[in-house]
Design a protein that fits this description.
The structure holds 2 protein chains of 2 kinds. Chain A is mostly helical. Chain A has 13 helices and 4 strands. In chain A, strand 2 and strand 3 form a beta hairpin. Chain A is globular. In chain B, strands 1, 2, 3, 4, 6, 7, 8, 9, 12 and 13 form a 10-stranded mixed sheet that branches. In chain B, strands 5-10-11 form a 3-stranded mixed sheet. The chains are: A mainly alpha, B alpha/beta. Chains A and B meet through strand 1, strand 3, helix 3, helix 7 and helix 12 of A and helix 3, helix 4, helix 7, strand 7 and helix 10 of B.
């Protein structure tokens, strides 16, 4: 019995590792055509789906099998040909459409940063209030309300952002009703309950004896929170931020509604732009061939970004200082 | 006679009710759904159609995963030959320019104005090119926000096809595609929405915006729609009557597998689009069931289509399609 139990739990643990590496491998294989074609330059290229007219080979588009002519209008048929498998690899290489991932990468990082700047102070305030300051008759219902907020599906946040929050922000800050700032703030609202409830729980684990001794020494409430509770609950607090960060990086539906979906570098906070998950959600169903590979390349980048950010946060904040 | 045929089909199929599966374009999905229900109630045969997008429709039928695929973008005869598919149109729809300018309710846009707006050359609503045909409207000195689709879409393809036909600068620089890097985006005056729903919402929530949407969606969302100049220089309001006026000049040719993007007709409302069905050439038994369904829809489905804001195909085109089926050996069994 002991043995079976041990191997069963071992099996579950290794499955996670297997799934993780399998995802990575699949992403890599699918992205390979795009990686081969654009290489590392993909990361800094702001063009997406732009047909490049090469000056020295003006006939490329005309002669390419991929373009069929309808009454003198160039109609992009790459997708169709690739979909039916009629496009040989050599023809695909000749295709002069450029995909670059800079704008979605920047959009993802910026919207996440805005969300964290907005959410961290508020979430900390909520959890301190709930754990230390609020009387029980208040902290119970508010705590439950926060947990309920965390359970709301993201698409509801998206619709709320699109129809009410976005126009409201646009009235205050100007710009259009869907933009980077709205996306960041909606993301922030979405991750606040996560952070707040996890932080509150870890604050509550501070032994009463520690707090009471501090009070006995004459410490004020602020000093107790700053010097006793925060250091004690640090691991839990940082952990909650990391979880929230992971969610903000990969959030798709809500952001797809409010970020604008425009391949454009944001010059102001109120400019619409695009993030990696949004590009994937918008274009996946209609893509094939090289554009599909480019999407997989983006997915791989998102995978690596979240992996790096989270492991960096883990090692930096949670290493044992003893 | 009609009743007799209906009764006959009912009697014939009630003992062998069949099921066919299709997937593809989302644009005709509402009308297909209506037809499917009507067809099931009359014949007992089940048709399944999921709206996954034209690209998926083409892919799935090319790989023979479904009995038919739907696409807003017609395939050329050469590609149909490679992929071994037959193709025919089912229904026509209009694409409208929905706008949101507080205080303005009947906007008229000339070809020059549309060109200027999409190319980003006309930046403000009170530009003389726009004012010229709207002397009675108070157009404000506000930046024009151009709303477009953020996802790859057949609607974008048909709209940009129209632009390419109308404007040589557009044709040279952008062409007709499912995803476009709009010049207005680079000027910071672009907003995008996911799906027709997203575009309608973006127009509604952004004052001084304009964007292209399917007529059916614009109608549902109560958008203001611009009256636009046709190829003959006359102005056409976006109404079903003006759409079907344009559809008369579609010029479908069965010899070319109906390969025709119908935007920019000689007369009538200029931005119209047909949606198509693709079937595998070799699966004639199943194809006959597919054509049986659409044959039923051509005969009985016009009302349902009109109610939803679509334009039924003209009768002569329907006759051509039935002839095409016969010639290819996929005509529905009598």
């Amino acid at each position: 019995m002991e043995k079976i139990f041990k191997s069963l739990s071992q099996l579950s643990a290794t499955t996670i590792l297997l799934i993780l590496s399998a995802i990575f491998v699949v992403l890599y294989i699918q992205a390979k055509p795009a990686i081969k074609k654009y290489g590392i330059h993909f990361l800094v290229d702001p063009r997406w789906g732009v047909t490049v007219q090469k000056n020295n080979t003006p006939n490329v588009a005309k002669n390419s099998v991929a373009n069929s002519d309808v009454g003198g209008i160039q109609v992009e048929d790459d997708d169709v040909l690739a979909a039916i498998g009629a496009l040989s690899p050599s023809q695909e290489k000749k295709s002069n459409v450029v995909y670059g991932g800079l704008i979605p990468i920047v959009g993802t990082i910026l919207s996440t940063i805005i969300a964290m700047i907005f959410a961290v102070p508020i979430a900390m305030g909520i959890s301190i209030f709930l754990a230390e300051i609020a009387p029980p008759f208040l902290s119970k219902p508010v705590g439950i309300a926060i947990e309920l907020l965390a359970a709301i599906p993201s698409i509801i946040y998206g619709m709320w952002g699109l129809f009410y929050f976005g126009p409201f922000i646009a009235k205050i800050f100007g710009g259009s009703s869907v933009n980077l700032l709205v996306a960041g703030l909606v993301l922030g609202v979405m991750i606040i309950p996560f952070m707040a409830s996890l932080t509150r729980d870890s604050m509550k684990t501070t032994p009463n004896i520690l707090k009471e001794s501090a009070y006995a020494m004459g410490a004020t409430k602020f000093e107790v929170i700053k010097d006793v509770i925060f250091p004690y609950a640090k691991k839990g607090i940082v952990g909650s931020m990391i979880l929230a960060l992971g969610r903000a990086l990969g959030e798709t539906m809500a952001v797809a509604f409010v970020i604008g979906g425009v391949f454009n570098f944001p010059h102001k906070l109120t400019d619409p732009t695009v993030s990696i998950p949004v590009v994937l959600a918008n274009n996946f169903a209609e893509s094939s061939g090289l554009s599909l590979a480019a999407l997989f390349y983006l997915a791989l980048i998102l995978f690596v970004i979240s992996f790096i950010v989270i492991s960096f946060a883990k090692f930096y904040f949670l290493r044992d200082k003893k | 006679m009609k009743k007799f045929i209906a009764g006959l089909t009912l009697a014939a199929v009630s003992s062998f009710a069949w099921t066919i599966n299709g997937t593809g374009a989302t644009f005709p999905y509402p009308v297909y759904k209506k037809w499917i229900t009507g067809f099931y109630n009359q014949t007992g045969n089940q048709v399944n159609y999921t709206g996954t997008g034209s690209g998926t429709g083409i892919k799935e039928v090319a790989q023979r995963h479904v009995n038919f695929g739907g696409s807003d973008k017609p395939l050329s005869p050469r590609i149909l030959k490679i992929a071994k598919l037959y193709q025919f149109p089912t229904v026509v729809g209009g694409i409208v320019l929905g706008y949101n300018i507080p205080g303005v309710h009947s906007l008229k846009l000339s070809e020059a104005a549309i060109k200027g707006i999409v190319l980003g050359k006309i930046k403000y609503w009170d530009n003389p090119v726009i004012v010229k045909y709207n002397p009675n409207e108070k157009l404000p000195h506000k930046k024009i926000i151009f709303v477009h689709r953020s996802d790859k879409s057949g609607t974008t393809f048909n709209f940009t096809y129209y632009l390419s036909k109308m404007c040589s600068t557009w044709r040279k620089n952008y062409g007709a595609r499912k995803l476009i890097n709009w010049p207005t985006d680079a000027q910071g005056r672009g907003v995008a929405g996911k799906g027709n729903f997203g575009v309608s919402a973006a127009i509604k929530t952004n004052p001084y915006s304009i964007g292209y949407v399917d007529y059916a969606d614009a109608l549902k969302n109560g958008l203001n729609m611009a009256t636009i100049q046709g190829r003959d220089g006359k102005f056409y309001a976006p109404t079903p009557k003006n759409f079907s006026e344009g559809a008369k000049f579609a010029g479908f040719n069965p010899k070319m597998d109906f390969y025709k993007v119908i935007a920019y007709p000689k007369h009538g409302y200029p931005i119209i689009a047909a949606t198509f069905i693709l079937v595998p050439q070799e699966k004639t038994t199943k194809d006959k069931e597919v054509t049986a369904f659409f044959n039923w829809a051509y005969t009985n489905g016009d009302n349902a289509a009109s109610k939803l804001g679509y334009i039924p195909l003209p009768n002569n085109v329907k006759a051509m399609i039935r002839e095409y089926w016969k010639e290819k050996g996929i005509a529905p069994a009598k």
